[in-house]
């Protein structure tokens, strides 16, 4: 005696055109700048310079479903008040992102894309600093998810602050 399983109606399969699409179309070095204002005297310094690292990213729409994400890293090394070197790298990528819910698009552009670009930025910064005659330097890995969460918290705090009468923000 065999038991017959009740048959449940199968849900329709999503059409291929409705499937989320994420692909890397191109990764390229958009901008690179190196300045060594105190050369050649800077090379006689014996103390390690103070390093300041600033990283940010920006996304722009290129076409429907096509986005350019640029991850920019600026590394400044100073001996006291004199700049030893300044390196700025803007690594870019063109990404195809389609059929992604609007609420999910920002995290993809602010987390996934920069995570893909970061190793390229890291390599270029390291290579340029070494070629400039300075000791090797590697950027520490960043959590773009944590940076995105901080950005969301700051945005919520700004929105929750009462606006002055008239709705205008105070001028800085």
Features:
Bacterial Protein-export protein SecB; single chain; alpha+beta; globular; 2 helices; 172 residues; 4-stranded antiparallel β-sheet
CATH topology of the domain at 19-135: Bacterial Protein-export protein SecB
Number of separate helices? 2
Helix proportion: 25-40%
Q: What's the arrangement of strands in the largest beta sheet?
A: 1-4-3-2
Structural class: alpha+beta
CATH top level of the domain at 19-135 is Alpha Beta
Distance between the termini: 83 Å
Q: Give the quaternary arrangement of the chains.
A: single chain
Mean pLDDT: 88
Q: In what range is the share of β-strand residues?
A: 25-35%
Question: What is the C-alpha radius of gyration, as a whole number of Å?
Answer: 24 Å
Indicate the CATH architecture of the domain at 19-135: Roll
Relevant CATH superfamily of the domain at 19-135: SecB-like
Low-confidence stretches are: none
Question: Got a strand count?
Answer: 4
String of helices and strands: EEEEHH
Describe the sheet with the most strands.
4 strands, antiparallel
């Amino acid at each position: 005696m065999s038991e017959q399983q009740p048959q449940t109606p199968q849900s329709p399969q999503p059409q291929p055109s409705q499937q989320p699409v994420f692909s890397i179309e191109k990764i390229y070095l958009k901008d690179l700048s190196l300045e060594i204002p105190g050369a050649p005297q800077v090379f006689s310094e014996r103390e390690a310079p103070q390093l300041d690292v600033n990283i940010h990213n920006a996304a722009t729409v290129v076409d429907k479903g096509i986005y350019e994400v640029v991850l920019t890293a600026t590394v400044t090394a100073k001996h006291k008040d004199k700049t030893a070197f300044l390196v700025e790298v803007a690594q870019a990528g063109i990404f195809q992102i389609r059929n992604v819910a609007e609420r999910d698009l920002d995290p993809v552009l602010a987390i996934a894309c920069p995570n893909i670009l970061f190793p390229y930025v890291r390599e270029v910064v390291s290579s340029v600093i070494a070629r400039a005659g300075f000791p090797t330097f590697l950027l520490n890995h960043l959590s773009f998810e944590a940076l995105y969460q901080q950005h969301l918290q700051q945005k919520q705090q700004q929105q929750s602050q009462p606006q002055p009468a008239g709705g205008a923000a105070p001028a800085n």
